[in-house]
Design brief:
CATH superfamily of the largest domain: TPP-binding domain
Bound molecules: zinc ion
Structural class: alpha/beta
CATH architecture of the largest domain: 3-Layer(aba) Sandwich
Number of helices: 13
Order of helices and strands: HEHHHHHHEHEEHEHEHEHEEH
Strand order of the largest sheet: 3-2-1-7-8-9
Number of strands: 9
Distance between the termini: 36 Å
């Protein structure tokens, strides 16, 4: 692999952060890829980390499509307190600063592996969810998948205009009461548009992610160990297209040598970027 570390990678922390801020604000198309490490700052457990959900709650079974077909109540009862309790969760400094960077026109969008809707809560409006999204619940019998993907990409709220579709907020209310969201047409239990094990990844989100990665001259790779595809392919696409990547992760990743800069602590890096972010928007850009 090409060694792309810039000399600035060896600067003392604050100077290195100044340089990162300069890269972000001078990039034409800066984008971010986020993984579980960003969510753990909001108190959400990493699915695969050492305190991961897989070890103590059988997440394989919670998100298994065949099991969901047999007993959808298992998914809802086990995800109630970590997916449907969004109101109790706070966006972390990473979510908030990414939202501010987008508003100031320094960030084109976020590609995320996470399914917790915290980027939206943190103020990001362009969020590409490559493992699907609980923003829409749909009927596996009555709903058209392309329609579900379009809705999930637009992050709707309220009435989705069809009895076989339900937005997150309404589903969360029903699940919070210990009930199951059901199809208004056929009565089947609705499924979230999260990609379960045994299902295909969302075609539209993957296509959007690929386009964003190709356009990016700077990709911030945040809180992901880059061991799971398709996320791992995102920075590779940016590198192949001639862009730079910056990695912030608490463990080494396979692309560290290919990164312009590497950092290990999300919280200090994003607190620092937040402090440097001027109130003023980027001049001459929408
Ligand atoms: Zn139905």
């Amino acid at each position: 692999m090409t060694q792309n570390n810039l000399p600035e990678n060896n600067l003392p922390f604050e100077e290195k952060l100044d340089f990162l801020f300069k890269l972000i604000t001078e990039a034409k198309n800066c984008a971010a890829l986020t993984g579980a490490g960003v969510s753990t700052l909001s108190g959400i457990r990493d699915f695969r980390g050492k305190n991961g959900l897989y070890n103590d709650m059988d997440a394989q079974k919670i998100f298994d499509i065949d099991y969901f077909g047999r007993d959808p109540s298992f998914y809802y009862s086990h995800s109630k307190d970590f997916i449907y309790n969004l109101k109790e969760k706070e966006a972390s400094v990473v979510h908030l600063v990414l939202g501010k960077l987008e508003k100031a026109s320094f960030l084109k969008g976020v590609i995320t592996q996470n399914i917790d809707l915290l980027h939206q809560k943190g103020g990001s409006s362009r969020v590409i969810e490559i493992h699907g999204s609980p923003s829409v619940h749909y009927c596996r019998r009555c709903s058209k998948l392309s329609r579900v993907e379009d809705l999930a990409a637009s992050k709707p709220a309220g009435d989705l205009g069809s009895p076989d579709l339900m937005a997150f907020e309404q589903a969360a209310e029903i699940v919070g009461q210990g009930k199951l969201p059901k199809c208004g047409k056929c009565g089947a239990v609705l499924k979230p548009a999260i990609t379960f094990f045994g299902e295909n990844l969302p075609v539209r989100a993957l296509r959007d992610a690929e386009l964003l990665a190709r356009e990016a001259d700077l990709m911030l790779v945040l809180g992901t160990s880059l061991t799971v595809y398709p996320a791992a392919a995102v920075p590779e696409i940016t590198l192949r297209s001639g862009g730079r990547i910056v990695i912030v992760n608490n463990m080494p990743t396979p692309l560290d040598r290919a990164a312009a800069l590497t950092f290990d602590d999300l919280e200090t890096v994003f607190s620092g970027i937040g402090r440097r972010l001027p109130e003023k928007r980027r001049a001459g850009r929408g």
